[in-house]
Please model this.
Amino acid sequence: MSIAFRLPAFAAAILAACAFTGAAHAQTEIKLAYALAVNSHYGAGAAAWAETTEKLSNGKLVFKQFPSSALGGERETVESLQLGTLEAVIVSSGTLSNFVPEVGVTDIPFLFRDLQHARSVLDGKIGQDLLAKFPPRNLIALAWGEQGFRHLTNSRHAVQAPVDMKGLKIRTMENPVHITAFKTLGAAPTPMAWPEVIGALQQGTIDGQENPMSVIVSAKLAEVQKHLTLTGHVYSPAALMVSPKLWNSLDEEGRKALTEGAKAGVAAMRAFVDDVEKKGVENVKAAGMNVVVLDDGAKAEFQKALEPAYKQYESRYGKALIDGIANAR
Ligand code: PAF
Model:
């Protein structure tokens, strides 16, 4: 046979081999967005989620990370999941109740006693029932991660009691439960997406904000805020979510890899939070912050001042559910 006849057959064989190799290594890229830097609890969760999923899927599912709000604020990224233009997010409960209203119950101030209490409720039936509310809203939530308990920072004065909140312009998340709480305490809540917050604090258009130690440390808030009050006023969960478009495209094995990966992400976030809860206060003191520690009596004053808000929460979420969470062991 002449070389002119043999070449096309040879080329076809190479092409077929390439096509086979390509199919064997077909990869799905998962774009994962989150609001904070890679050295945060979100970054730790994202790394563990990615590593475990990639390993369990034998490299078929591959993550590409977009930290530091690179793809927009949390509300925008959740909308992108619904549209199917983004595959995965780690988000706080900040805007979640605007998509899945039932989730707002977790945002009620002083509902959870401590991290252990919050973790066992969210890992248990109540938390899993809440995850089941996402698919009808065109979202898939795989697991509850966390940020820790939120505390108050501001640059005006040390906050020791509810009376010190009067008139303070506090940035809150775009979260109706939080906005109600800060109004009830006499502050002027200013809902704002996270990517605008540092600039607004620098320019003085707001006096303060509230976030857990995990955020206060990783976002270096000591550079733009003078006073920290350890209010621990509300637990801040975070959801590890994927788009229905991605979820529906996966077989059973792919879904399992993604779900097990999310569990590893949760464990990494919780380990980060445990660590920063121990070391964070010393860290921000060293960076020049004035830290106010509230004793039980002072915390009780905040709870008392919030009584009118609790009435509203009860009518929105039901006393039975709120009591069920508060009394869970
Ligand atoms: O304050 C917020 O909006 C959230 O806690 C943050 C910092 C974006 C992390 O989810």
